[in-house]
Protein backbone atom coordinates (compact mmCIF):
# COMPACT_ATOMS: atom_id res chain seq x y z
CA UNK A 1 0.00 0.00 0.00
CA UNK A 2 1.07 3.57 -0.71
CA UNK A 3 -0.86 4.66 2.36
CA UNK A 4 0.09 2.17 5.13
CA UNK A 5 -3.10 2.68 7.13
CA UNK A 6 -5.02 0.96 4.32
CA UNK A 7 -3.17 -2.23 5.25
CA UNK A 8 -5.41 -2.42 8.33
CA UNK A 9 -8.18 -3.73 6.06
CA UNK A 10 -6.07 -6.64 4.84
CA UNK A 11 -6.19 -9.01 7.84
CA UNK A 12 -10.00 -8.83 7.81
CA UNK A 13 -9.97 -9.66 4.11
CA UNK A 14 -7.39 -12.42 4.42
CA UNK A 15 -4.98 -10.50 2.19
CA UNK A 16 -1.19 -10.60 2.49
CA UNK A 17 0.39 -7.16 2.94
CA UNK A 18 3.71 -6.15 1.37
CA UNK A 19 5.16 -2.88 2.70
CA UNK A 20 7.58 -1.33 0.18
CA UNK A 21 10.80 0.33 1.32
CA UNK A 22 9.89 4.02 1.44
CA UNK A 23 9.13 6.81 3.92
CA UNK A 24 5.31 7.14 4.09
CA UNK A 25 5.77 10.67 5.44
CA UNK A 26 7.36 11.68 2.12
CA UNK A 27 5.77 9.64 -0.68
CA UNK A 28 6.95 12.10 -3.33
CA UNK A 29 10.53 11.17 -2.48
CA UNK A 30 10.16 7.40 -2.84
CA UNK A 31 12.72 5.42 -4.82
CA UNK A 32 10.62 3.80 -7.57
CA UNK A 33 13.17 1.00 -8.01
CA UNK A 34 12.36 -0.26 -4.49
CA UNK A 35 8.62 -0.07 -5.17
CA UNK A 36 8.96 -2.03 -8.41
CA UNK A 37 11.26 -4.57 -6.76
CA UNK A 38 8.63 -5.26 -4.07
CA UNK A 39 5.98 -5.87 -6.74
CA UNK A 40 8.23 -8.16 -8.78
CA UNK A 41 9.71 -10.10 -5.86
CA UNK A 42 6.43 -10.84 -4.13
CA UNK A 43 4.17 -11.06 -7.17
CA UNK A 44 1.93 -8.30 -5.86
CA UNK A 45 -1.52 -8.43 -7.46
CA UNK A 46 -3.20 -5.38 -5.91
CA UNK A 47 -1.68 -2.04 -4.97
CA UNK A 48 -2.99 1.29 -3.69
CA UNK A 49 -1.32 4.67 -3.96
CA UNK A 50 -1.79 8.34 -4.70
CA UNK A 51 -1.39 9.72 -8.22
CA UNK A 52 1.98 11.13 -7.14
CA UNK A 53 3.32 7.67 -6.31
CA UNK A 54 2.05 6.11 -9.54
CA UNK A 55 3.44 8.99 -11.59
CA UNK A 56 6.93 8.42 -10.15
CA UNK A 57 6.72 4.63 -10.54
CA UNK A 58 5.28 4.93 -14.04
CA UNK A 59 8.07 7.23 -15.21
CA UNK A 60 10.69 4.78 -13.90
CA UNK A 61 8.98 1.83 -15.60
CA UNK A 62 8.78 3.60 -18.95
CA UNK A 63 12.40 4.78 -18.80
CA UNK A 64 13.55 1.23 -18.11
CA UNK A 65 11.01 -0.58 -20.31
CA UNK A 66 9.55 -2.43 -17.30
CA UNK A 67 6.16 -4.10 -17.30
CA UNK A 68 4.33 -5.31 -14.19
CA UNK A 69 2.44 -8.45 -15.25
CA UNK A 70 1.56 -9.60 -11.71
CA UNK A 71 -0.54 -6.50 -11.03
CA UNK A 72 -4.23 -7.18 -11.58
CA UNK A 73 -5.54 -4.07 -9.81
CA UNK A 74 -4.09 -0.63 -9.20
CA UNK A 75 -6.11 1.76 -7.07
CA UNK A 76 -5.28 5.44 -7.57
CA UNK A 77 -6.86 7.82 -5.07
CA UNK A 78 -6.25 10.82 -2.85
CA UNK A 79 -6.63 13.45 -5.58
CA UNK A 80 -7.99 13.72 -9.13
CA UNK A 81 -6.24 11.26 -11.46
CA UNK A 82 -5.09 12.62 -14.82
CA UNK A 83 -6.29 10.55 -17.80
CA UNK A 84 -2.74 10.59 -19.17
CA UNK A 85 -1.48 8.67 -16.14
CA UNK A 86 -4.12 5.99 -16.61
CA UNK A 87 -3.31 5.83 -20.31
CA UNK A 88 0.41 5.32 -19.62
CA UNK A 89 -0.22 2.31 -17.37
CA UNK A 90 -2.81 0.74 -19.65
CA UNK A 91 -0.66 1.07 -22.77
CA UNK A 92 2.88 0.57 -21.46
CA UNK A 93 3.08 -1.02 -18.00
CA UNK A 94 0.19 -3.35 -17.20
CA UNK A 95 -0.22 -6.51 -19.25
CA UNK A 96 -3.42 -7.96 -17.81
CA UNK A 97 -4.42 -5.55 -15.07
CA UNK A 98 -6.94 -2.75 -14.54
CA UNK A 99 -6.84 0.62 -12.84
CA UNK A 100 -9.57 1.89 -10.53
CA UNK A 101 -10.04 5.41 -9.20
CA UNK A 102 -12.39 5.16 -6.19
CA UNK A 103 -13.78 8.36 -4.68
CA UNK A 104 -14.45 9.05 -1.03
CA UNK A 105 -13.23 10.75 2.11
CA UNK A 106 -12.05 9.84 5.59
CA UNK A 107 -15.63 10.45 6.78
CA UNK A 108 -17.22 8.35 4.03
CA UNK A 109 -15.26 5.75 2.13
CA UNK A 110 -15.76 4.46 -0.51
CA UNK A 111 -18.54 6.27 -2.36
CA UNK A 112 -18.08 5.67 -6.08
CA UNK A 113 -15.78 3.70 -8.35
CA UNK A 114 -14.83 3.55 -12.03
CA UNK A 115 -12.24 1.60 -14.02
CA UNK A 116 -9.48 2.99 -16.18
CA UNK A 117 -11.06 1.41 -19.23
CA UNK A 118 -14.35 3.17 -18.52
CA UNK A 119 -12.52 6.49 -18.06
CA UNK A 120 -10.58 6.22 -21.31
CA UNK A 121 -13.79 5.34 -23.15
CA UNK A 122 -15.10 8.91 -23.24
CA UNK A 123 -14.72 10.73 -19.89
CA UNK A 124 -10.93 11.17 -20.34
CA UNK A 125 -11.36 13.48 -23.29
CA UNK A 126 -14.05 15.45 -21.47
CA UNK A 127 -11.77 15.82 -18.42
CA UNK A 128 -9.00 17.22 -20.60
CA UNK A 129 -11.49 19.70 -22.07
CA UNK A 130 -12.43 20.96 -18.61
CA UNK A 131 -15.61 19.09 -17.66
CA UNK A 132 -14.22 17.87 -14.33
CA UNK A 133 -13.08 14.39 -13.30
CA UNK A 134 -15.47 11.47 -13.68
CA UNK A 135 -15.36 9.27 -10.55
CA UNK A 136 -17.99 6.79 -11.66
CA UNK A 137 -21.19 5.41 -10.22
CA UNK A 138 -22.27 5.22 -6.55
CA UNK A 139 -21.60 1.84 -4.95
CA UNK A 140 -24.43 -0.44 -3.87
CA UNK A 141 -26.08 0.73 -0.65
CA UNK A 142 -24.65 4.25 -0.98
CA UNK A 143 -26.88 7.25 -1.71
CA UNK A 144 -25.26 10.28 -3.36
CA UNK A 145 -26.98 13.58 -4.13
CA UNK A 146 -26.04 17.09 -5.26
CA UNK A 147 -27.29 20.05 -3.21
CA UNK A 148 -27.01 23.83 -3.75
CA UNK A 149 -23.67 25.43 -2.88
CA UNK A 150 -23.75 27.00 0.56
CA UNK A 151 -21.31 27.65 3.39
CA UNK A 152 -24.09 27.59 5.98
CA UNK A 153 -25.27 24.57 8.05
CA UNK A 154 -28.17 22.45 6.77
CA UNK A 155 -29.77 20.92 9.85
CA UNK A 156 -32.43 18.63 8.36
CA UNK A 157 -32.61 16.78 5.07
CA UNK A 158 -35.39 17.49 2.59
CA UNK A 159 -35.68 15.78 -0.78
CA UNK A 160 -36.21 19.18 -2.40
CA UNK A 161 -32.53 19.91 -1.72
CA UNK A 162 -31.43 17.43 -4.40
CA UNK A 163 -30.48 19.02 -7.71
CA UNK A 164 -31.19 17.32 -11.07
CA UNK A 165 -28.47 15.82 -13.33
CA UNK A 166 -26.29 18.42 -15.01
CA UNK A 167 -26.57 20.99 -12.22
CA UNK A 168 -23.44 21.85 -10.21
CA UNK A 169 -23.54 21.71 -6.42
CA UNK A 170 -22.06 20.13 -3.33
CA UNK A 171 -21.79 16.36 -3.17
CA UNK A 172 -23.53 14.72 -0.18
CA UNK A 173 -23.56 11.04 0.73
CA UNK A 174 -25.55 8.71 2.97
CA UNK A 175 -24.72 5.10 3.78
CA UNK A 176 -23.50 2.65 6.43
CA UNK A 177 -19.89 3.90 6.18
CA UNK A 178 -20.71 7.56 6.86
CA UNK A 179 -19.44 8.93 10.19
CA UNK A 180 -22.00 10.68 12.37
CA UNK A 181 -19.92 13.45 13.94
CA UNK A 182 -16.54 15.01 14.61
CA UNK A 183 -15.65 14.20 18.23
CA UNK A 184 -15.95 17.25 20.49
CA UNK A 185 -16.25 19.56 17.44
CA UNK A 186 -19.92 20.62 17.36
CA UNK A 187 -19.41 23.53 14.95
CA UNK A 188 -17.63 21.36 12.36
CA UNK A 189 -20.26 18.65 12.80
CA UNK A 190 -23.08 21.14 12.17
CA UNK A 191 -21.43 22.32 8.95
CA UNK A 192 -20.81 18.82 7.60
CA UNK A 193 -23.75 16.68 8.76
CA UNK A 194 -27.41 16.73 7.74
CA UNK A 195 -29.91 14.75 9.85
CA UNK A 196 -32.40 12.54 8.03
CA UNK A 197 -34.75 10.62 10.36
CA UNK A 198 -31.98 8.91 12.31
CA UNK A 199 -29.56 8.72 9.39
CA UNK A 200 -26.83 11.15 8.41
CA UNK A 201 -25.94 12.80 5.12
CA UNK A 202 -22.30 13.85 4.99
CA UNK A 203 -21.43 17.00 3.06
CA UNK A 204 -18.26 16.11 1.18
CA UNK A 205 -17.07 19.67 0.68
CA UNK A 206 -16.50 18.74 -2.98
CA UNK A 207 -18.40 20.34 -5.85
CA UNK A 208 -19.65 18.28 -8.75
CA UNK A 209 -22.61 17.04 -10.75
CA UNK A 210 -24.26 13.91 -12.15
CA UNK A 211 -24.35 13.35 -15.89
CA UNK A 212 -27.24 11.79 -17.81
CA UNK A 213 -25.72 8.30 -17.33
CA UNK A 214 -25.68 8.55 -13.55
CA UNK A 215 -21.93 9.10 -13.31
CA UNK A 216 -20.57 11.51 -10.72
CA UNK A 217 -18.14 14.25 -11.82
CA UNK A 218 -15.95 16.18 -9.38
CA UNK A 219 -14.88 19.78 -10.06
CA UNK A 220 -12.90 20.67 -6.92
CA UNK A 221 -13.28 21.63 -3.28
CA UNK A 222 -16.02 24.02 -2.25
CA UNK A 223 -13.48 26.03 -0.25
CA UNK A 224 -11.31 26.38 -3.37
CA UNK A 225 -13.95 27.90 -5.63
CA UNK A 226 -13.16 31.34 -7.03
CA UNK A 227 -16.01 33.85 -7.11
CA UNK A 228 -15.48 36.85 -9.36
CA UNK A 229 -17.94 39.69 -9.90
CA UNK A 230 -19.33 37.85 -12.92
CA UNK A 231 -18.64 34.15 -12.59
CA UNK A 232 -17.84 31.06 -10.53
CA UNK A 233 -14.57 29.34 -11.42
CA UNK A 234 -13.64 25.84 -10.23
CA UNK A 235 -10.15 24.35 -9.86
CA UNK A 236 -10.36 21.01 -11.68
CA UNK A 237 -12.01 22.23 -14.91
CA UNK A 238 -9.75 25.30 -15.18
CA UNK A 239 -6.50 23.57 -14.27
CA UNK A 240 -7.11 20.82 -16.82
CA UNK A 241 -6.76 23.35 -19.63
CA UNK A 242 -3.37 24.67 -18.47
CA UNK A 243 -2.14 21.18 -17.58
CA UNK A 244 -2.55 20.33 -21.25
CA UNK A 245 0.58 22.33 -22.10
CA UNK A 246 3.53 19.93 -22.54
CA UNK A 247 5.83 22.00 -20.30
CA UNK A 248 3.39 22.17 -17.38
CA UNK A 249 3.74 19.69 -14.50
CA UNK A 250 0.63 20.95 -12.70
CA UNK A 251 -1.30 24.12 -12.06
CA UNK A 252 -3.51 25.62 -9.37
CA UNK A 253 -6.39 28.08 -9.60
CA UNK A 254 -6.59 30.53 -6.68
CA UNK A 255 -8.59 33.63 -5.97
CA UNK A 256 -7.06 36.88 -4.72
CA UNK A 257 -9.36 39.24 -2.88
CA UNK A 258 -12.79 39.03 -1.30
CA UNK A 259 -15.25 36.33 -2.49
CA UNK A 260 -17.58 37.86 -5.01
CA UNK A 261 -14.84 40.23 -6.17
CA UNK A 262 -11.94 37.81 -6.50
CA UNK A 263 -9.24 38.04 -9.13
CA UNK A 264 -8.65 34.58 -10.62
CA UNK A 265 -4.99 33.57 -10.81
CA UNK A 266 -3.50 30.41 -12.28
CA UNK A 267 -0.20 29.32 -10.73
CA UNK A 268 2.01 27.10 -12.90
CA UNK A 269 4.65 24.57 -11.88
CA UNK A 270 6.82 23.54 -14.81
CA UNK A 271 8.21 20.06 -15.40
CA UNK A 272 11.68 21.59 -15.41
CA UNK A 273 11.24 22.72 -11.80
CA UNK A 274 12.48 26.16 -12.79
CA UNK A 275 10.99 29.65 -12.96
CA UNK A 276 11.07 30.80 -16.59
CA UNK A 277 12.49 34.16 -17.59
CA UNK A 278 13.21 36.22 -20.67
CA UNK A 279 12.17 34.83 -24.04
CA UNK A 280 11.23 31.45 -22.56
CA UNK A 281 8.73 33.11 -20.22
CA UNK A 282 7.26 35.25 -22.98
CA UNK A 283 6.78 32.20 -25.22
CA UNK A 284 5.17 30.19 -22.41
CA UNK A 285 2.80 33.01 -21.49
CA UNK A 286 1.78 33.41 -25.12
CA UNK A 287 1.10 29.68 -25.50
CA UNK A 288 -0.81 29.46 -22.20
CA UNK A 289 -2.82 32.50 -23.23
CA UNK A 290 -3.82 30.71 -26.43
CA UNK A 291 -4.98 27.71 -24.40
CA UNK A 292 -7.10 29.75 -21.98
CA UNK A 293 -8.77 31.73 -24.77
CA UNK A 294 -9.79 28.51 -26.52
CA UNK A 295 -12.13 27.54 -23.66
CA UNK A 296 -15.01 29.68 -22.33
CA UNK A 297 -14.48 28.77 -18.67
CA UNK A 298 -10.84 29.98 -18.62
CA UNK A 299 -11.17 33.14 -20.73
CA UNK A 300 -11.49 35.36 -17.64
CA UNK A 301 -8.21 34.16 -16.10
CA UNK A 302 -5.86 36.97 -17.08
CA UNK A 303 -3.12 36.46 -14.48
CA UNK A 304 -0.53 33.67 -14.72
CA UNK A 305 2.22 33.18 -12.13
CA UNK A 306 5.02 30.62 -11.98
CA UNK A 307 6.00 28.70 -8.84
CA UNK A 308 9.00 26.40 -8.50
CA UNK A 309 7.11 23.72 -6.54
CA UNK A 310 3.46 23.98 -5.53
CA UNK A 311 2.83 23.28 -1.81
CA UNK A 312 1.08 19.94 -1.23
CA UNK A 313 -0.38 17.93 1.66
CA UNK A 314 1.84 15.78 3.87
CA UNK A 315 -0.14 12.54 3.64
CA UNK A 316 -0.41 12.07 -0.13
CA UNK A 317 2.01 14.73 -1.41
CA UNK A 318 -0.54 15.43 -4.15
CA UNK A 319 -3.31 17.69 -2.83
CA UNK A 320 -2.32 21.26 -3.66
CA UNK A 321 -2.60 23.60 -0.67
CA UNK A 322 -4.43 26.36 -2.48
CA UNK A 323 -5.08 28.39 0.67
CA UNK A 324 -1.32 28.87 1.15
CA UNK A 325 -0.87 29.49 -2.55
CA UNK A 326 -3.56 32.21 -2.55
CA UNK A 327 -1.65 34.10 0.16
CA UNK A 328 1.57 33.73 -1.83
CA UNK A 329 -0.12 34.94 -5.03
CA UNK A 330 -1.55 37.98 -3.26
CA UNK A 331 1.95 38.96 -2.12
CA UNK A 332 3.34 38.48 -5.63
CA UNK A 333 0.71 40.79 -7.03
CA UNK A 334 1.32 43.42 -4.37
Report on the structure:
It is built from ten helices and 16 strands. With 334 residues, it is an alpha+beta fold. Strands 4, 5, 6, 7, 8, 9, 10 and 11 form an eight-stranded antiparallel sheet that branches. Helix 2 crosses helix 3 and helix 3 packs parallel to helix 4. The chain is globular. The relative contact order is 0.09. A hairpin with a 2-residue loop joins strand 4 and strand 5. The mean pLDDT is 96. It folds into three domains: 97 residues, Rossmann fold, CATH 3.40.50.980; 84 residues, Luciferase, Domain 3 (Luciferase, domain 3); 108 residues, 2-Layer Sandwich (GMP Synthetase, Chain A, domain 3), CATH 3.30.300.30.
Q: In the CATH scheme, what's the topology name of the largest domain?
A: GMP Synthetase, Chain A, domain 3
- The DSSP helix count reads 10
Question: How many domain regions?
Answer: 3
Structural shape = globular
Question: Any descriptors?
Answer:
single chain; alpha+beta; Luciferase, domain 3; GMP Synthetase, Chain A, domain 3; 3 domains; eight-stranded antiparallel β-sheet; 10 helices; 28% helix; 25% strand
How is the topology of this model organized?
Layout: H1 10-13, H2 32-42, E1 46-49, H3 51-63, E2 73-76, H4 83-93, E3 98-100, E4 103-105, E5 108-113, H5 116-120, H6 123-128, E6 133-138, E7 143-147, E8 169-174, H7 186-192, E9 193-196, E10 199-210, E11 216-221, E12 226-227, E13 232-233, H8 235-243, E14 248-256, E15 263-270, H9 278-293, E16 303-306, H10 322-332
Parallel strand pairs: 1-2, 2-3, 15-16
Antiparallel strand pairs: 4-5, 5-6, 6-11, 7-8, 8-10, 9-10, 10-11, 12-13, 14-15
Helix pairs in contact: 2-3, 3-4
Amino acid sequence: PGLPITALFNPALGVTTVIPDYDPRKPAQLNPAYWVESIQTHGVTTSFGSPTIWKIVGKYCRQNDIKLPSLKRILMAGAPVAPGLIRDYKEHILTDGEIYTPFGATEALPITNISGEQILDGPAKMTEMGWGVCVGWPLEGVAVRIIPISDEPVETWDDSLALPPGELGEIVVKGPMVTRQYLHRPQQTALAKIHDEGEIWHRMGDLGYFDSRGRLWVCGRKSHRVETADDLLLPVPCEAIFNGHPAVARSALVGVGRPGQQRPVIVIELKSGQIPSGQEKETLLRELDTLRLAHPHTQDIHTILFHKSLPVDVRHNVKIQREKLAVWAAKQLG
